[in-house]
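User: quick one, sequence for these tokens?
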């Protein structure tokens, strides 16, 4: 019943402000409530309580800063968390500087604050230390995908394809999620025959929705036409239009 304890101590401190024992007990209750909120994914609420605890008892900053940073990350304030993680890593608070999970948390905060290049640097270093760590591999892959999407947005398709390819090697469990984007970049990077293989894989192996299947088939037809397989491309376009006449406009744009 941390919430009740917090309220009780707050009421008591209004009558006895500055009482050392009451303050200590209040901070303990507040930290307990923050941890309980974090366990129930009430991250913003948890972060606010950690902030209050640190402000009220700055001597406990070293103890609580990591947990506070974690809750900032998960409550949509990853950019603020980045500075806190760096403060810890800088060595102010001792042995945590060598904590792989701490560095991984920094990388995640960088990634979630739209700093994928910096996140990539962190996870590349962690991969050297722990090459089989699944979380490190997946976070590095996510950083690479974010960078790939940036490259794709400025038509650097070969670079984007290379980033997607490495991401899929690092995190094969994400194949269904990222393969379409990879194949698209292969097409636009003048590697249409390789793209055709990926589109065919999706159509044969992935449980696609009707809309997603149509999208893949349109992309397949485009890759076929760009690879010189014009008969196959026209056959696919004709089949698409026969299945769903509304795809005619999309097909005409590609043709």
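Assistant:
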């Amino acid at each position: 019943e941390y919430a009740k304890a917090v309220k009780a101590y707050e009421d008591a401190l209004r009558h006895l402000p500055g009482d050392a024992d009451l303050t200590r007990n209040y901070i303990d209750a507040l930290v307990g409530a923050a941890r309980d909120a974090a366990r129930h994914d009430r991250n913003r609420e948890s972060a606010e309580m950690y902030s209050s605890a640190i402000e009220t008892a700055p001597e406990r900053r070293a103890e609580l800063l990591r947990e506070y940073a974690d809750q900032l990350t998960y409550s949509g304030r990853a950019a603020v968390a980045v500075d806190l993680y760096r403060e810890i890593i800088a060595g102010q608070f001792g042995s945590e500087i060598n904590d792989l999970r701490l560095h991984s948390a920094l990388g995640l905060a960088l990634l979630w604050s739209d700093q994928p290049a910096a996140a990539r640097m962190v996870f590349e270093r962690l991969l050297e230390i722990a090459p089989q760590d699944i979380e490190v591999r997946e976070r590095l892959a996510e950083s690479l995908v974010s960078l790939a999407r940036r490259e794709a947005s400025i038509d650097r398709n070969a670079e984007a394809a290379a980033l997607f390819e490495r991401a899929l090697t690092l995190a094969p469990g994400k194949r269904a999620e990222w393969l379409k984007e990879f194949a698209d970049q292969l097409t636009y990077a003048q590697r249409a025959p390789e793209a055709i293989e990926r589109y065919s894989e999706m159509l044969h192996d992935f449980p696609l929705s009707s809309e997603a299947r149509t999208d893949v088939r349109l992309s397949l037809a485009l890759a076929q036409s760009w690879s010189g397989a014009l008969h196959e491309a026209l056959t696919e376009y004709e089949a698409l239009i026969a299945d769903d006449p509304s795809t005619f406009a999309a097909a005409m744009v590609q043709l």
